[in-house]
Write a structure and sequence with these properties.
This protein is α+β, with helices and mostly antiparallel strands and about 525 residues long. It contains 19 helices and 20 strands. It has two domains: about 240 residues, no CATH class; about 190 residues, Orthogonal Bundle (Serum Albumin, Chain A, Domain 1), CATH 1.10.246.130.
């Protein structure tokens, strides 16, 4: 456990190092988080970027600020609830999106929602940052220009074959001429571990942003070219969509677990699922049951399934859908599920079809010398594959997880954001931050964050141990397990009537990155399934 002034944990070593340099230069947690995030968009270009979306938890006791900045990308104004209803072929088994004929929601110009991340980065920095904006953007420019090497997890995602009719990683990379030039070898295959990526076009884009802030994308030169590109290729985004977008500052969604205070994000983020699951599991002696035993998996998975059913039925953008937040996060509501789990009842999770998780998101967690904390999860969703010629960055594919059926919590509606499992969270012990945590991992995010929290609070693990322990998930009627969950445990679950699906991978079900603070010492954990690092400063 490090005795240091600050610490940063991120899923990419290059980006974490930049955040650490920001802290060493006198920057605060916001400066470090945004500098890190901009570099993440360079060195993990299918995971995140300035045309993405996300959510950030910000605790600045020095300024008496405790807020969550939600930047969920809204559907364009030209979208309609029934625009794709006739194209439905299926729903992913884990609930992460729908498969449509022609994959119009998955890849290409119509899959893009209004870019949100850059506006949020700039907003966060404008309110709380201390270093000049140009200095925050400069390292990303440098990485784009001098180049970076493809890492193992980057290659893993780029070589993804696609599931359930989804576009493969290569299809996304090679959708445009710019993508093929940047990210593919001469034979048309995706670049491999050790190959170099140079992106001078993105460096030029970032230079414009360094000088003009976020306005250049939303109302300025970049925005004009985006609108032209969308118009020429059948995209949905207009100049009004860009000009009208603003991230939303919210008070934390609060809960408790075994005496610890929990703060997390509001719907349409995944914090509501996290609190519901913690409320249920608080009633069980998890340490007595035994970590990753068959009974532990059964209990935790039933809590996951209940939260998944409630998410599907009740959780959408609260500006468009009445989300029963108080009921779903109440201890009394959790008690109903506790009775069912204790009695051995299996929750049924309705699904249209089968699929597997998507992992295109990333995370940064920071604590600075003044005890200021930032946890930010940001993403491209399932990236659209679209790069406007000369810009060097991908747009989000956020439309893919909207429900193409009318009248649902996450049905397509102009200006509406769809549910996302991102749940950056801060856990308090005796009113002081104890865990600063979050994860990428699509619909598995809340499930991974939940398990890491339980690992620390119920099993006294360090942060590194907590993010490294084998994980599992249940976002359908099946229980998915990583290959480090023992066969004896899965055989017991099978004897109880559960379908168990084993992943060939030893890691997965989100990639949790977090910081534990114990008596002013920092314990950072970067999920070993990714390429990240924890750096104390």
């Amino acid at each position: 456990m490090a005795k240091a002034e600050g610490i940063i944990v991120a899923a990419q070593a290059e980006a974490a190092e930049v955040g650490a340099l920001m802290l060493r230069a006198g920057g605060n947690a916001v400066d470090a988080a945004i500098g890190c995030a901009l570099v993440q968009g360079v060195v993990d270009p299918l995971m995140c970027g300035i045309a993405g979306f996300g959510s950030a938890g910000i605790y600045f006791p020095s300024k008496k600020v405790h807020k969550y900045l939600d930047f969920h990308a809204p559907a364009p104004a030209s979208s309609r609830p029934d625009m794709w209803e006739h194209l439905i072929e299926g729903e992913a088994r884990d609930g992460y999106g729908f498969i449509l004929k022609g994959r119009v929601n998955d890849v290409g110009y119509q899959s893009i929602c209004v870019p949100a991340s850059l506006k949020a980065y700039h907003e966060m920095h404008s309110k709380l940052g201390v270093l000049p904006w140009r200095d925050i953007v400069a390292p990303a420019i440098e990485w784009a220009e001098r180049g970076w090497m493809v890492r193992p997890h980057v290659e893993l995602f780029w070589s993804d074959l696609g599931m359930m009719g989804r576009a493969s990683g290569l299809e996304r990379l090679a959708f445009t001429t710019s993508g093929r030039r940047l990210y593919c070898r001469r034979d048309g295959t995706a670049k491999k571990v050790g190959d170099w990526v140079h992106n001078p076009e993105y460096a030029n884009t970032l230079r414009l942003i360094a000088e003009g802030g976020s306005d250049v994308l939303y109302t300025g030169e970049l925005g004009d070219r985006i609108v032209d590109d969308m118009r020429n290729h059948g995209g949905l985004i207009t100049a009004e969509d860009l000009a009208n977008y603003n991230p939303i500052w919210r008070n934390p969604l609060r809960g408790s677990y075994r005496g610890y205070g929990i703060t997390t994000n509001h719907p349409p983020g995944g914090g509501i699922m996290l609190l519901e699951m913690l409320n249920i599991l608080e009633e069980f002696d998890l340490s007595g049951i035994g970590h990753n035993s068959a009974e532990y998996l059964r209990v935790v998975c039933e809590a996951m399934k209940r939260a998944t059913v409630d998410k599907d039925r009740h959780v959408g953008d609260p500006a468009f859908f009445d989300v029963p937040i108080e009921r779903l996060t109440s201890k009394a509501y959790a008690a109903e599920t506790v009775r069912d789990i204790t009695a051995g009842v299996k929750v049924d999770v309705p699904r249209f079809n089968a699929g597997f998780e998507s992992k295109d998101t990333t995370q940064v967690s920071v604590v600075d010398r003044d005890g200021n904390c930032v946890t930010m999860t940001h993403s491209l969703g399932m990236p659209s594959g679209v790069i406007t010629d000369g810009f060097g960055f991908f747009y989000n594919g956020y439309m893919a997880v909207f429900d193409p059926r009318s009248g649902r919590a996450n049905s397509i509606t102009p200006g509406k954001a769809r549910f996302t499992s991102v749940c950056p969270s801060i856990i308090f012990k005796n009113d002081k931050p104890y865990l600063v945590i979050g994860a990428p991992g699509a619909t598995q995010i809340a499930m991974g964050v939940l398990q890491a929290i339980l690992n620390v609070l119920d099993f006294n693990m360090t942060m590194t141990e907590a993010v490294s322990a084998p994980r599992f998930s249940a976002t359908s009627n099946a229980i998915d397990v990583s290959n480090r969950i023992t066969y004896g445990v899965t055989r017991q679950l099978g004897s109880l009537g559960y379908e168990v699906i084993r992943s060939p991978y030893t890691f997965g079900f989100a990639a949790v990155h977090g910081i534990r603070i114990v008596e002013d010492r920092f314990d950072g954990g970067a999920d070993p399934g990714h390429d990240g690092i924890a750096l104390a400063v």
